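Blinded run. Sample ID left blank on purpose so nobody reads anything into the name before looking at the predicted structure. Input follows.
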Amino acid sequence: MSSARGPSHAPQRPAAARTRWFAARAAAAAVALIALVPFTAPAASADTGPSRARIYQDLGLNDQPADYVVLVDTSGSMANDGKYDTVRSTLRPFLDGLSAKDHVALFTFDSRPEPRYIGSAGDTDAIMSKLPESPDPEGETDIGAALNSALGELERSDAAEIASVVLLTDGVHHPPAGSAYPKSTGLAWTALHRRAQAVADHTELAGYALPLGSGATGADLLGDVVDHTTVLRPDSIQDLSGYLERAGDGTRARKARLLLADDIGKGITATWSPSGRQDLTEGSVAATVTLRSTTRHVPLTVRDLSVSVAGQPLRVTGVPTTVTLEPGHSRSLPVRLRGALSAGPVPYRRTKDVDAPLRVSGQVTSDWQRALAPDVHLKVPGEVRVTGAALPLRATVGSAVLLPAVGAALVALLLILWLAWRRTHRPRLRGELLLESVFGGQLPDRIALSGRRVALHPRIIGGQGSVRGRRRATEHGPQVDLLIRYTPDGSTNRQSGATCVPGRQVVVNGVSFTYLPEQRAGSPVPADGRPR
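Blinded prediction complete.
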C-alpha cells in the first residue's frame, strides 16, 4: 500500500522508538512461535530416539515435491523500518531449505500482483534476483488479487500433492480503484474460497500468514480463503526468519504425513515358519517364529517379547526380549519348544498329532512416534498380530502298560462277575432227588445230586429231564432251590418245569419230585415212598 495512506498501515513512531518497540516484542514473538507453529523435534538422544530432521532424511523427504506460493507485499509502507530489506534477507534461508524437487512461485503485490519467479526451487540466487530492489512508494495493497494469482498457480494440472501459500504483508487490504476485490468481504472472496476448496480436494493445501506489524490485519484474510491457515505473528520484524523457517517445517511435516499415510495403523505380525510336522516325543523340538513389519517407511520395535503355545503345556525358549525391524523387513527367530503333549484323560500309549496355535505378547512401538508428534500420528498397534497356521506337532504319549493293565483288570472283573453269577445261577448240587408216580404202585427212583447240572433218566418212572440249582438268600442263610425240567416221553412238546425248595416236593407231568438236601440224603424211604 502507499505510504501516503494513513489507514493502510500502523501509526508512525519516531525511528528510535520503533526500534525499541520491535526489540521489546522479540521475546513475546518466541513464545508465540512455540504456541502457533508445528513442533520441531530436538536432536537425537538415547532417550528420545532420532530427530525429526534425521527422520526426514531417512524418508528422502527432499525427493517429495511440494508447491510453494510466496506472496510478498511491496506496497509503499514496506519501506518503513527496513521491513522490505528484512523480508529479502530472511527469504534466502527459507528458500535454501527447499528441495530442488519443489516448485516455487514468487509474487510481489501492491496495486496489482506481479509474478517474479515461477519454476523449480534449488537456485536461491536466481529466485532472489527477481525481487525488486525496493517497494513501490505509490503502491496500494490488493491482497485479494494476490490470492487470486496464488490460486491460479495451484490450479495447474501438474500441481504437487502438497501446497503452501505464504503471505507476508504489513498492512490491511487497501486495493486500488477498479480492483475485483474492493472490500475484504463479498462474492469475490466467496469465489476465492470455493476455488481454494477445489484445490484442496486433490492437494493438501495450507496457508501461512505473517503479519509484519500490529496493524497488519490483511494477513488474516488468507484464513478466509484457505481453510487450513496458520497466522504467525512475529511482533518483531527481526523474528521473521524464524517464522519463515517454521512455515517451511510445517510443509515438510505435511510431506511426511502424506508419505507415511499408508503406514498409519501398521504394525508387526508373527507366524510359525512352515517346516512340516515336528516330533516332540523326546520333550524338545526346534521351531522358527517369523516377525514381519507391515510398514513401508517406519521402523518398529517390539519389547518384552514372549512366545507361547495356546492349549498345550509347552514352554518356548530362546526368544529375545527386544526385536527391532526395519520397514518391510522380517526376522526369523529360532526357538525351542519344551515339554510334552497332553495325553488326555485316558493316557494310553499312542501317537498324537496336534496343531499348536502361536501366541505372542509384547509392546510394539516406534522411535519415530515422539519425534513426529503431533503432526503425524502413526497409531502403531501396541500388540503383535498373529497370522498363519498353527504349528503341526506329533508325539508318542501315554503309558505303555496302561492298556495291558486295563485289559487284565477287565478280564479279572469279568471273571469275578462270572463266578458270582455262576455261584447264584449254577451252584453245586448236593443231596438226592426222589421221583415217583403220583398214582403209586412203583418204588421211587433215587437220583444223587452232584455237579452243577444233572440229567434225569429215571429207570423206573421213565422219561427224561434235567435239574440245575439257583441260590437265594433266606432268613436262615443261603439255600439252593432246584429248577426241574421233565417230559414223560422224552418229547419237548410235553416238557414242563417247576422249582423245588429243599425238603419239599413238586409234581411235574404226573411225577412227584422230592428234594432231599445233603443232610437228609441216604435216609430210608418209607413203604409209602413219602419222606418223613
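Unblinding after everyone has recorded impressions. The chain has eleven helices and 25 strands.
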